[in-house]
Amino acid sequence: MLKINNLSCQKGYNLLFSHLSFELHSGDILRITGTNGSGKTSLLKILAGLNVQEQGTIFLKDCPVKSEDYQRAIFYLGHLSALSAELSCLENLRFLTTLNQSAEQPLLINALKQVGLEGYENEICAKLSAGQKRRVALAGLTLSKAKIWLLDEPFTALDPQGVEMVERYITQHCEQGGMCLFTTHQNSALKNQQVLAL
Amino acid sequence: MNIYLQTLTRDLHSAIRNLSSVLNPLLFFIISISLFPLAISPEASMLSQIAAGIIWVASMLAVLLSLNTLFHNDFDNGVLEQMVVSHHSLPLLILSKIVAHWLLTGVPIILLSPLLGVLLFLDNESIKVLMLTLLLATPSLSLIGAIGASLIVSIKNSGMLLSLLILPLYIPILIFASSAVSQAQSGLEIDAQLYFLATILVVSLMLAPFISALSLKISLE
Hints:
The complex is a heterodimer of chains A (about 200) and B (about 220). Chain A has about 200 residues and is α/β, with parallel strands linked by helices. Chain A has one domain (about 25-50, about 70-195): Rossmann fold (3-Layer(aba) Sandwich), CATH 3.40.50. Chain A contains six helices and nine strands. In chain A, helix 3 (about 90-100) runs parallel beside helix 5 and helix 4 (about 105-115) crosses helix 5. Chain A is globular, with a radius of gyration of 17 Å. Chain B is an all-alpha fold. Chain B has helices spanning about 5-15, 20-40, 45-65, 70-75, 80-85, 90-105, 105-120, 125-150, 160-185, 190-220. Chain B has one domain (about 5-220). The interface of A and B includes residues 81 and 100 of A.
């Protein structure tokens, strides 16, 4: 169970949100909505342990944010896909996956195949389109064993099939007892999603 | 493969694919040194006297030139973000990156130094001492440089700022290293200088990864 209590976030002189409290249980999908600059990304970054909250607490069971067990349970995908332009899809994916767990070659190749990048394994990432780069990053999702997915605009640059694919992954993950928090400006067809408006 | 080892090989791979960023500082190193005989005097007695200083100043500036690439790419593409989010030790991940940086700049400088020493009429004994000081001190250059690079990683066009931050910290290394070589040339003991260089290396090895990790976290907020 992810428990967020009395969270506030301030950027410069701007108070983005304050006294935010909610709980997420296994299987929950939370869609975070809000206008540009309302603090969606800041919220996800705080939950990922990247930013420091002004006040409030975040606990996964008994583990506070930034503790090793908490960070182990997190998969974070930000605006940036974390791909080096000089490295191939496979090399990038191998590194990103190893950051979270061990990664074996056949699994990595299979993950790239699943996101529709078969045959692109050894292609340098600088030569890929924006959508294809996003797909490499999303291939990490299919390999991730993390319980909580934090996805910041996961649908950006994806075609309709890609969006559907990500939604399928989210549904599967939550059916298996995971949790997912994501932000998007697009309409999402995900069932059972709860909405948090900032 | 272990994540720290993989961070290192990943940096080496991307450097090999982007060779100009590795070669530029080394070319600067070679060219700037080879210009001195033309500008000052080709006389052996003159050049051998100033050789150690020239090689040391050039290697320091070459390392300084290469520091911009240490964190910038990974900051821009989001890899540093993922490193912070992961459950691995950030200082150790950064240390792996620093080791990669040393392998790409420090080691080539050490390997090139005997050649440039001969060019500047250094005798064999002094070349050995020069290589020893470079071996002891170039890792410190990378480590201390990482602190500066991590502080300015979020600032665009920060070349001058990095020099201002880092050069004062490099000065003790420069003094001890070049004085070791000139003492060796006059046949004196150099233990003291080497101990000082080793101390700087140990202290920077202990502190630099932690300080860099902290300032990278602040830059990412």
